[in-house]
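Figure 2 data, in text form.
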Amino acid sequence: MLKNDIQVLRNLANELAELSTLPIMKERKQQWYNLNARKVDKPMFLMGEFPWNEMNVNDELTLRCEDPFYQEMETTLRQLLYRHKHIQDDWVYEPFIYIPKVIRGLNFGLDIIEEKLTRDDGNVVEAHSYVSQLQDWDDIEKIKVPDFYLDEEETKRREEMANEAVGDILKVIMDGPEYEYRPWDHFMEWSDIDTLYDKMLFDEDWVHALMRKTIDVHLETINRLKDMDCLMRQQQVVHCTGAWTDLLPENPEKPELKDVWTYGMAQILYTVSPEMHNEFEFQYAGEWYDKFGLGYYGCCEPLDDRMEYVKQIKGIHKISVSAWVKDFERIAEEMEGNYVYSNKPAPALVAAPNWNPETVEEDLRTRLNAAQKYHCPVEFTLKDISTICYEPQRLTKWSEIMRKVIG
């Protein structure tokens, strides 16, 4: 079994290694360097978070390996090669394969209690109904630094298996988790919106105590990961956007927090005032971002009416311009050319039963024109793609439209 699995992986690894030698990869990498140094250069774009269950063209994603770990490696390699052939975005293909270190027990003291509703088999997009566990003062104490550990034996086993299969073709890099700061996403999994909004209005001390406990737990956790040598090396992506940069060390042997990217968000707070958003999120986020080398802020929440607070967070290099931004020019003007204008076009435009490429192009041009008017370095990221109606060619077409728009 393993002999056949290894041959499958070697064939795929050789394809990736060959891709990495193409001259365009060196050119793309430099363009990402320029963008992430906040230089106005060629706009870049990526796609991410695909509905892979809808995209298996000619069995290109069908797994041939039998060993569970080798299936994980095969999935990674097949998706990379599929991306090159069909997605055709600005991904940089490198002669590496990243293998996650096995860390056990990495939570924050509260398990998620929920019910799920899945759209169709194989789709990772699910609807969630959570049981509220944060209601009063005593509940805050449930949040704690997790009692996690590195499973050294399993990590070593995976590293040895990966090297045995492809180590002479690709560099095997054992990697830790990425570093994110999104306490409000966790709160929505642990509590409910009515409780949280009531607390912000009528018991702000409780919310501040919750935030203080959460930021302290996050910081202690990330420092423990650093001490265990379980930080992620140089990321290829940060929140689905290109993270290639020469402002940070490339794959440092034992990275410090200042060697890596981080990202964060507070999506549910877009419905509160900018002042409340600042009180209950931005001022705490600043403590987190100050520890890291480079930062990305935002996700789906529109930030155009609260940029004065976002800009007070030190270390932010990229700011999300979501599909729900009301004024693309206003947020570009607020950036003053000092941040990457990180576009998040609406994935709904490729998900509709009868999608309209003309609407896609119009949206992309509006966003690009706003960024260029105020001399912002600009990127595009099509993510959160829950469905393409089983028409994967839509993503190829979206990429063609994007190339046309950026010229």
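Caption note: The chain has a mean pLDDT of 93.
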